[in-house]
Design brief:
With 295 residues, the chain is an alpha+beta fold. It contains 9 helices and 13 strands. The protein has helices at residues 2-22, 49-53, 79-87, 111-116, 158-163, 194-206, 230-233, 236-244, 265-280; strands at 34-39, 42-48, 59-65, 70-78, 96-101, 108-110, 119-125, 132-135, 141-144, 149-152, 172-178, 212-213, 216-217. It is globular. Bound molecules: heme C.
Length: 295
């Protein structure tokens, strides 16, 4: 009798294991198909990809895919047309648009960038295959891109290629229009040096999507300033090397190096460190109830 129950258990385990192995795509289905559009943190519309496809003309677009370091074709909707329909023309007067991804990546893209460059929401692979990519910058992790993935008509644009992956969130679940500075806790004080201010601009472009300073910023990677700043516990020469080539310090770290495409990378890294030092003298406890608790 005992033997028999054991056999049944073994059999069940085998079946469970087999099911788990044969349906690895189950995690792909976990991405919700709806995107929340917000103004100042309040939801104004929740739309599925099909709803959005009914609003704006779709097309195929070839982009340089920095996560895979090659060109790739996606099916896309023009971002400006989507914003016009969802928010009304007034979105152009906003200051920043914050995208929150399922994995915590949270870039803040200046509205000006959307007015100057062609941004698109990709919703499918151009070749009809799975809507995924292999993220070479993060240990070749296979990432699902849906429901929406923000891409840019970046081929031949030095400026767009220099921003690299910073403004390319995938798995977008919320799009939040901000009328004023969205990250007040990470601003350097008016008294800080020119170098630190330039470092802040670089930090906003290249780091904020993943990291927080005093609680403000993205949720994909650790806080860098509170309660102890990284400039206090990481030796200066290692900090710079970490920013330029993290994998030469920690094998297989998921942090990507500052993009090779950036001119003056060393100078950019030095300025970012000047900014981090300035913030080390301006610690503030992260807000207790951050507006976006959903990440
Ligand atoms: C795509 C997300 C991403 C971006 C962009 C990013 N980082 Fe990171 N960063 C990480 C992750 C993930 C870790 C944790 C890595 C680990 O533990 O190996 C990390 C760790 C760090 C650490 C070490 C923190 C500690 O306490 O050990 C520092 C310092 C750092 N990042 C600075 C930066 C700076 C400066 C930038 C911008 C130039 C930046 N990061 C951009 C994801 C990112």
């Amino acid at each position: 009798m005992h033997m028999c129950i054991q056999r049944i258990m073994q059999y069940l385990l085998l079946v469970a294991g087999f099911l788990a192995l044969s349906f690895p795509v189950a995690s792909f289905a976990a991405n919700p198909d709806k995107v929340e559009f917000k103004k100042e943190g309040k939801v104004v519309k929740t739309m599925s990809v099909d709803d959005l496809r009914a609003l704006a003309p779709e097309r195929s677009l070839e982009v340089f895919e920095p996560h895979e370091r090659r060109n790739w074709v996606y099916r896309v909707l023009p971002a400006r047309a989507v914003f016009d329909k969802v928010f009304g023309k007034d979105w152009e007067k906003a200051r920043e648009i914050i995208f929150t991804a399922l994995d915590g990546f949270k870039p803040s893209v200046p509205v000006k960038k959307f007015l100057r460059h062609e941004g698109y929401f990709a919703f499918a692979n151009g070749d009809g295959g799975l809507f995924t990519l292999t993220n070479k910058l993060q240990n070749n992790e296979v990432a699902t891109l849906g429901p929406l993935y923000l891409v840019w008509d970046n081929i031949g644009s030095k400026e767009l290629l220099e921003t690299w992956i910073s403004d390319m969130p995938y798995q977008i679940k919320t799009i939040d229009l901000k009328m004023k500075e969205p990250f007040p806790n990470m601003l350097p004080s008016a008294a800080s040096s020119e170098q630190a201010r330039r470092g802040f601009d670089h930090f906003r472009t290249h780091c904020v999507a993943c990291h927080t300073i005093n609680g403000d910023g993205g949720g994909k990677a650790p806080e860098l300033n509170y309660p102890e700043s990284v400039v206090e516990y990481i030796k200066p020469e290692y900090l710079k090397r970490w920013i330029l080539a993290p994998q030469t310090i920690r094998y297989n770290t998921p942090m990507p190096a500052l993009a090779e495409e950036i001119s003056n990378r060393e100078k950019v890294a030095t300025e970012i460190i000047a900014y981090l030092k300035a913030m080390g003298d301006a610690k503030r406890a992260p807000p207790e109830n951050p507006e976006d608790t959903s990440r």
